[in-house]
């Protein structure tokens, strides 16, 4: 049995990774900012991080923050992992971080490079956007009578549980470097996906396609964030929505 630390282990992806690893018989430590016994802010790199990593063979890094600080968090984690003799660092990234000049993507790419240069065995898995992200986006936009969406942009949403399953597989194996990208089963326009959401939610809204400017938008329009050759996901956005609304009691 291996001791594995999962950062962000209560988040959208991390909690499913934890479940998979525990089902595989591993001793899993969950590191978050607020949940004992491994409540550590990776951006601060306090003594609790060394305690959390003591005796750990593998680290799965799922933690991220919209408030920034991911690069510093990765530096602290990698330094502590090296002190603890961790043998395998696993990181979840995003398809297109090297092609789309979007600020958050640039941060993810910088963290990838830190893992590659860590001197420790590493694995990086890039996935397309989760169904959950589109759900939250459309849920927020549909509060208004009009839903503005970037024109001529497509997406390839993937199920978070499928990504968690793959990430857990990689964590239980030898360091693999850059693993094959993982994309959802369908590439569709944002307009089509929004219509799918509205239909499932039982809402009527006008969806307006808004042309934008900038290098990031052009890269998204060009499909830099898509992985058509790696459409390995199985669960569609409509299947996700059906389950989501069945649980919450919303929708049709």
From TrEMBL:
**Matches recorded under Pfam families:** NAD_binding_10
Q: Where are the transmembrane segments?
A: none
Q: Which domain of life is it from?
A: Bacteria
Q: Which residues form a coiled coil?
A: none
Q: Which InterPro entries match?
A: ComplexI_NDUFA9_subunit, NAD(P)-bd_dom, NAD(P)-bd_dom_sf
User: Where would I find the NAD(P)-binding domain in this sequence?
Assistant: 8-132
The identity of this protein, by name, is NAD(P)H-binding protein
Species of provenance: Streptomyces thermocarboxydus
């Amino acid at each position: 049995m291996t001791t594995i630390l999962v950062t962000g282990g209560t988040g959208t992806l991390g909690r499913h990774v934890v479940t998979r690893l525990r089902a595989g018989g591993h001793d899993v430590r969950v590191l978050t900012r607020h949940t004992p016994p491994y409540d550590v802010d990776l951006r601060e790199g306090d003594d609790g991080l060394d305690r959390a990593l003591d005796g750990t063979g593998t680290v799965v890094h799922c933690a991220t923050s919209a408030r920034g600080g991911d690069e510093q968090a990765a530096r602290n984690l990698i330094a502590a992992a090296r002190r603890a003799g961790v043998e395998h660092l696993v990181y979840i990234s995003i398809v297109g971080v090297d092609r789309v000049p979007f600020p958050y993507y640039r941060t993810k790419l910088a963290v990838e490079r830190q893992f590659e240069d860590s001197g420790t065995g590493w694995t990086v898995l890039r996935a397309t956007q989760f169904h959950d992200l589109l759900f939250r986006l459309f849920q927020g936009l549909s509060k208004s009578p009009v839903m503005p969406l970037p024109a001529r942009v497509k997406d390839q949403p993937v199920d978070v549980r499928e990504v968690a399953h793959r990430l857990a597989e990689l964590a239980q194996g030898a360091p693999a470097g850059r693993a094959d990208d993982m994309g959802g089963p369908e590439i569709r326009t944002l307009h089509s996906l929004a219509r799918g959401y509205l239909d499932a939610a039982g809402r009527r809204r006008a969806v307006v396609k808004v042309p934008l400017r900038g290098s990031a938008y052009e890269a998204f329009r060009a499909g830099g964030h898509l992985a058509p050759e790696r459409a390995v996901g199985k669960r569609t956005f409509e299947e996700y929505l059906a389950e989501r609304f069945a649980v919450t009691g919303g929708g049709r």
